[in-house]
């Protein structure tokens, strides 16, 4: 009995320990700089010629390309997800507090175009991916949740499913439960990247914030999952987009559960997102 139990637990450990994680650099002609990317390959990648679906997994506002490998509270979580779902997981690095959009004022902040015009084509060129919308998904935490829903809403030809974990669904910092000095700092950064005079009020939200894209989400028919902890400082922005999606009758999975803006929360959230996303990914 002890031997059989040992083998049961040993097998998954052996599987994810054979995962390969590449750190590559993708040069952006748009921004004239190299950006690091972590690419996690399932164990079967080395031994065959199959092509794989891809999940783009985005980091938060002050994060980096390797956050999902180094900061989760369960070491090896991303590797285990790549092995369990037999897919490629791509974790790109972007600039701090850049929200994955194209700035109208700063040439160094063109991350939406980088993502769609440079990063995805380069990953499809370097790796055996199923280079089609039906086999590609995107999710992320905090600023990465904003990026995942924004990019997928504006580029529905690229993704079949999208998600957000504790995402910044509205960049209007008045909705954030944060100290005033933090709020002022973020407002200053937004003005530098987006200019003055942006509208933050419904129904004419500015085009740089996710809550302003709910009608596009409805039209796109992309599978959506949104979750946030009830103690998160961004809970009000998540409740706001949930209500807007209900009002315009956009199908989506919405989850609130105990937790705050922490790596413990995101460690628990990632398997939930993979379980949801995997239902939609095609493998042929």
TrEMBL record:
Keyword Phosphoprotein: no
InterPro entries in the cross-refs: AB_hydrolase_fold, Esterase-like, Mycobacterial_A85_antigen
Any GO molecular function: hydrolase activity
Gene3D superfamilies, sorted: alpha/beta hydrolase (3.40.50.1820)
A Pfam family this chain is assigned to: Esterase
UniProt KW Hydrolase keyword: yes
Keyword set, alphabetical order: Hydrolase
Domain of life: Bacteria
PANTHER family: DIACYLGLYCEROL ACYLTRANSFERASE_MYCOLYLTRANSFERASE AG85A, ENTEROCHELIN ESTERASE-RELATED
Name of the protein in its database record: S-formylglutathione hydrolase FrmB
Organism encoding this protein: Algoriphagus hitonicola
């Amino acid at each position: 009995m002890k031997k059989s139990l040992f083998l049961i637990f040993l097998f998954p450990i052996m599987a994810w320990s054979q995962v390969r994680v590449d750190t590559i650099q993708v040069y952006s002609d748009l921004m004239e700089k190299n950006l690091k990317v972590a690419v996690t390959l399932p164990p079967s990648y080395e031994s065959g010629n199959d092509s794989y679906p891809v999940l783009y997994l985005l980091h938060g506002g002050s994060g980096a390309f390797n956050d999902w490998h180094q900061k989760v509270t369960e070491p090896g979580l991303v590797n285990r997800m790549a092995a369990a779902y037999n897919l490629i997981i791509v974790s790109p690095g972007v600039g701090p507090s850049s929200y994955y959009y194209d700035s109208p004022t700063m040439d160094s902040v063109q991350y939406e175009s980088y993502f769609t015009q440079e990063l995805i084509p380069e990953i499809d060129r370097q790796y055996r991916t199923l280079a089609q919308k039906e086999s590609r998904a995107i999710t992320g935490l905090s600023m990465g949740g904003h990026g995942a829903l924004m990019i997928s809403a504006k580029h529905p030809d690229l993704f079949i499913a999208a998600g957000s974990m504790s995402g910044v669904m509205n960049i209007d910092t008045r909705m954030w439960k944060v100290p005033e000095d933090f709020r002022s700092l973020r407002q200053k950064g937004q003005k530098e990247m987006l200019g003055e005079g942006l509208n933050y009020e419904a129904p004419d939200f500015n085009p740089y914030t996710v809550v302003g894209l709910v009608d596009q989400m409805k039209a796109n028919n992309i599978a959506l999952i949104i979750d946030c902890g009830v103690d998160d400082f961004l809970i009000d922005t998540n409740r706001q987009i949930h209500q807007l999606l209900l009002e315009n009758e956009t199908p989506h999975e919405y989850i609130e559960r105990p937790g705050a803006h922490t790596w413990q929360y995101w460690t628990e959230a990632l398997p939930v997102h993979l379980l949801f996303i995997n239902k939609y990914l095609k493998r042929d």
